[in-house]
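Lecture 7 notes: from sequence to structure.

We start with a single chain of 1293 residues. Read the sequence below before looking at the structure.
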Amino acid sequence: MILTQNNKFQIQAAAPTIQKTIDDYRRDIKLLKVKYIQLQEVNQQYKQKLEWYSTKLSVLDRQSNNNLSILDASLLYQTQNQSQNLTRVGSSNNFMGADQQIMEQFSNRCKMYLGMSPESLFRAADIKYEGVLKDVIFKQFLLNSKLNMKPQHIQRIIQLCDLECTGKISRQGYNDCLQAFQINQESILEQILGENQQENRTYNQRSFYKFCENLISQLISPYMCYRHIDNNNEGYIQYEQFYGFTTKFMKNINDTEIIGIYTYLDIEKSQQISKDYFIVQTKKVMRIVSNDKNINISNFIDLKPSNDKGPVNGKGNSQNGKQNEQNENINNSNHGNCDRSKGKDQFHPNKIDLNLTQEVDLKQLIGKFVNSYKINIPNFVRIIADSMTDLRAGILLQDIFNSFKKIKNYKKVSNGDKLLFFKGLDTGKNGSIDYEELIKFYCKFKQPDWPVEIIFYLFARILLVIEIDAEQYFKYQGFTSQQVLKKQEFIKFAKSIFWVEEQAVAVELFQFLDKEQRNDIYLSALIDQVDFEIAEQKRLFYGIDNELNSTTKSISSTKKANVKDITELESFKEMEQNQKLIHIKKTALSDANVSLQQMQNIVNSLKPTLTENDFFLKHEIDENKQVIKTKWETILNDEISCLKKCIEIVSEMKDKGEQVWTDSEFGPNEQQDPYGSKSMYFSSNEIPPGCPEPENVRWLRLNEIVDEYIENHGDEYLSEDEIKELQHIHFLYEGASSNDVKQSKYLGDCWFISALSIVSEYNEYIDGEFDPHKPGQTEDQKMFMMSRGIYPPLFHFLSQYGIYVMKFFKNYKWRYVIIDNRLPCLENGEIIFSQCATKNEFWVSLIEKAYAKIHSNYQALNSGDMGQGLQDLTGNLSIKMKLDNFKYSKDDIEFGRCPTTIDVGEKINTQTTDFEEVWEKLQSSKEAFWQTLMAFKEKGCLIGCSADGGTEALVNLDGEKTGIYSGHAYSINYLMQLDYINQEEKENHKRENPHQNHRILIVRNPWGYGEWQLKWSENPDYIDKVQQYMPKINKFFDDQETRCKKLGITTPERYEMAEDGKFLICYKDWRRIFNNLFVCLLFSDAWSGFRIKGCWNQQFSSGVLKKSEQSFKDFALKNPQFIIELKNKSGSTEKSVPFFINLAQNDGRLFNGEKYPYQKIQQSMMLCLFELKNNQNKLDKYSEENILQNSGKYSQRREVQLDSRCLLEYGKKYCLIPSIKNQITNPEDEQHFYLNIFGRCKKEDFIITKVNQDFQIKELGVNAVSQIEYEKTCEFKNVLIQAVNKQLKEIKI
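Now the structure, written as tokens:
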């Protein structure tokens, strides 16, 4: 019986006796171990506190012995001793300087070693998001975080962050400490509250404000204060003197504030504050304090001391003190008499009286900005938003003035116009502009050519301030992500949510989101757009997501030998010879002893001259939105032409006496582009917010980058061996790895970098892995290996001239891009865009540079599709598969929480079909899909996946944090089926898991960190299971290694329990988390392929399909039409054959000036497949009866495809019709398209014929890669191979 809160008795049943199992005892033991560890931590904490208190008591004791004299010799001596006792760095006795060195070293190492700001390091340690950490926990975190700082320096950082010896470090106290030493890397809103106002001041300014308050309360003038601090008349103030004075006479100012004040006044960072500067600044802020407090200080602020020193307080016995006491007392009732006349005395320059300015005609002012000053208003609005020092503050006058400085003609804009513009935007008359006012301004004056995306950009700022994502925000407003809005509904929505009162702007927003022109939009499309903007602004403003790989591959770790390989060698001599062989295989082509004349003669015989068709076209969008076509001189359309061009470049270099080549088409060009701005951005007027100005960029060669890194870091961070190793420049060092890749914060090309990370699983995709010494190779195999890879071995010899050649599969043909070895760098020598983690390895930077060049500039790489990136890098066709149907549970189907139609191998109506039948078919579909995944990996396909949602936002599952990021690409390395370890586990899973094994995927985050946190993860709550299954996992990799060695392919990288971005996840959870699967297809020899190149033009483009008889006829007769006929196979049991068919168009990214998704370049297209019946030879009109499949609704993607389960029957004819939504009316607007048709049969088994249009048809290799013209380059390749073999023979075994 128990007593409830209502004082009523209730009968409580006796608890039944429960027999404990072995698992219960194991759990108890585990809890005891955890408790033991906690007690150890508590014990350590008490010891640490004792040290803290003893240190603090010694400081207090020192201060109590100096109650009359401020900075006499004994105080200075003891202060110096204290700086030594607190184990400060260096031999300097300067109290402040030592702490400053420690804190600056801490800040630098956070950025260099961890890729994080000091602020984000605290957030990383605060895993419970409590805002407070125990000192011992934070100390241990810093010791374990690879900062490589001395323990005593870490201890001092802890002391400085917890000067009150509380044993805890708050986030605010930590940030205050960072600001005091001016090492904070994130702008934090610091506010100071007065009686009637709130001002935006930094921590150091607030501390100095407090210092001046104390001076006023004690009637001390700046002159008197300085005289008693600098008691030796040295003409400057040192930290020890300032510290002694402040701690004695201003008890309400703590040590961190003292440091902040001194740092604020020490503008030259010389550890000395000059007399004049101290007095001027102190007088200035004292007047601000008097203004805030309504106190008259004119009676004593200019009071100067006599030659005799007296007590500091103005009420003492000195002559000045007596005079001050008798004649110049502060009159608290005399308000408002401080000097306010000079603007320079204002502490906060953003504070203005808007009533003093005249009324503003914004329309007239904008006209003046556009016509007279040539200001791009949309770009300027972005600049304004990004000029703020803190996201949460309003846009102040200073932000507006700073924004004008970032435009081209800012000197022409008068201060009066700037002030009027500020007043015009500040409709609330509160001295600042908020985002709502900025959005209203933009909508009110928006011109037709102003982009609407800026509205999303500004709205994202609001959500970033309130720390909420778009889906949560709309949910609070009563909307869901699956909600569909018609145009009129969206107009009302935009007015209430975005403050868009202009209907024309709302309609334009709607059209922007309705990319497929369905006249309705899902709210999820809007959520994705806003979340994308949020992620981009986090990346640019805070540096988040900018250092993708904090666990970098260190120089020392790359030099470690593989223990297993060493033990297999018979002797050290053999090991040394093996290393030489590896080195020769990697570098032989660069060192091959082939004369330039010999190479030139061979190439000239193969390709006498270069023609117009050999050069890749360059597309520029001019001011009138017209496409201007020119040709690239250093991007070519085939291998032999590129080789000839390279030889010509080297010959010209030799004639000029140059050692390395400089690319005049990409990078700085003295005549046309001195800063290389056109290679970085669309134009000098469209520099993305937060990105470096071109004039501040240095284009350094690879050796210069390494030299600067050694110069900046060598003495302190690198050993002599590491410096020597760094001086060896590598394109690729010891193979590619996703851990090599570090994405830049200045470029939103994660889609391409993720694809590059996935491709890096296989070195042959990167640099070809040419091995001329491998036995059993035919000449054809050698020829092929010389040409494969993004950086083909055929061109490796050119690196000695500073020339690199990368190839990309663009518009269904290999394009060869020639670049030099310069990379854009910041002023400190740091590479601006993506780079390798190892400082002397450059494959990531050089491939990205070449990819940027073929698209005209780096900015063109912002936003994209990972599948397209995989195709451009490998030449293999890629597909995107949706996994949404696998997420529905049995209850979802039974109670109607799923779509009306779902695809379970066949399309099935969930409303008219029994839910049990639907569930059974869905389960079968899941099983079949696992087998499909296994088949993909078995064939060597590259596979990646991603989760829908905001860009790089954490995904939750059943209320738990998963560690997975939405909008981010992951690679799938391996799939495993692990048998249960015992009969008990087998029985427990019998019902839910009929296949009787664990289906596990090994997935990798290309960042190299950020792993799955739930079941099968390395999280402490789940790691026991992983450890249990490690023997089976190791057995899986043993079998894989044996298989790979037999096939002669790259052996797999084993799974290790480490923070490397690689994790285990079961198939069930993987289906629930991820929405998209990207597959780079590899067809087996059983497949045959053809590619058709055709075009849409005036004659063959019917436009959008409508529900009318005439439209049905036009669709068939006025679109290109192709017939696929499968021959009868007599005697064969096979009745049908699987086909893969996709439709593609030219890449809009190649048009310089256009932005993703290239609505003005790429067409909305659709592909339909019909069965021809009754001996038809062509399709006469669109028919629902005849249609077998289509690619879905009209889509503006670069590629669309038919269902992967497309089956065509032998003995039948089929019709393919590619169509576009917009009919072509201008002959100059014709659009090329490509049809890729692959069937699992011999090429003789099917025939492709035209109906109404001429077209080119080309037989393809099974990997969809253009056939290499071996005969053209055989002679040249053989010369190089012979040179390599000659070097191999010179190695003495």
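The chain has six domains: 39-188, 199-345, 356-542, 576-876, 880-1080, 1088-1262. Keep this in mind for problem set 3.
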